[in-house]
Amino acid sequence: MPPIQSRQNPLVKRIREAIREHRDEIVLEGPKQVADAVAGGWEAIAVLERGRDLSASVFDSLAETREPQGVLGLFRRPHATASAILDRRHTVAIALDGVQDPGNVGTIVRLAAAFDAAGVLLLPGCADPFGPKAIRASAGAILSVPVAPITARELLDANLPLFATAMNGAPTDPPSSRGVLIFGNEGAGVSQELLQRATTISIPMSARIESLNVATSAAILLARSFALR
């Protein structure tokens, strides 16, 4: 079959919609990410190569990266559950409360892999970890880290120790296991509903800096949690 030449082709439109909406289907770029997703059991709908399956111009119109790597994969969006993440009691879980920047969300997914967290729980208001920018920021970690939505009530009802980052929190160690480490919105922080039930912790640092980026804070605390195991 000759490569698809038209941007109006139904499959091309479907890929474009998945890139834009990433609800039930998502798109991965690059041979390694696509191969890793297939090896990890993700359900592939289509794997397409530049020049073979899609013309160069059509492929480049879909590619999100500046230097397309020649392979696109359209996949069913994987679905993890909050209960499965919370059941992993030997390691800390991460909860994000309204973290809106997809780069921050993707970076924290990568940190979850680096420091063997149970997974990432997304409270309302978070950026989608399966959006193109978040996937790139995760550097492939989204392929192996379980991510699931959760409400504040569900998190509170889980009856696990909660630790929320806050500027006025105690400069104490994060949990090493059986707990949830909560990171809040880039501006507003963790919601009051969760702060009232959580132990608040902070990162000791110089008075020259008022606060750190949420992903930087996550890196410091998750590394410390990992070292305490």
Report on this model:
By secondary structure, the protein is α/β, with parallel strands linked by helices. It has two domains: 10-76, Ribosomal protein L30/S12 (60s Ribosomal Protein L30, Chain: A); 82-227, 3-Layer(aba) Sandwich (Alpha/beta knot). Helix content is 34%, strand content 20%. It has helices spanning 10-21, 31-39, 56-62, 82-86, 102-114, 132-138, 152-157, 192-195, 214-227, and strands at 25-29, 44-49, 71-76, 93-97, 120-122, 147-149, 162-170, 180-184, 199-201. The longest helix has 14 residues, at 214-227. The mean pLDDT is 93.
Summarize the model shown:
The chain has 229 residues and is α/β, with parallel strands linked by helices. It is 34% helix and 20% strand.
Largest sheet, spatial ordering of strands: 6-5-4-8-7-9
Largest sheet: 6 strands, parallel
Mean pLDDT metric: 93
CATH architectural group of the largest domain = 3-Layer(aba) Sandwich
Q: Tell me the radius of gyration.
A: 19 Å
The class by helix and strand makeup works out as alpha/beta
Helix content: 25-40%
Low-confidence stretches: none
The tally of strands reads 9
Q: What is the CATH homology-level superfamily of the largest domain? A: SPOUT methyltransferase, trefoil knot domain
End-to-end distance: 55 Å
What's the overall geometry?
Answer: elongated
- The secondary-structure element order is HEHEHEHEHEHEHEEHEH
CATH topology value of the largest domain: Alpha/beta knot
What is the class of the largest domain in the CATH system? Alpha Beta
Helix count from the secondary structure assignment: 9
Chain oligomer state? single chain
Strand content: 15-25%
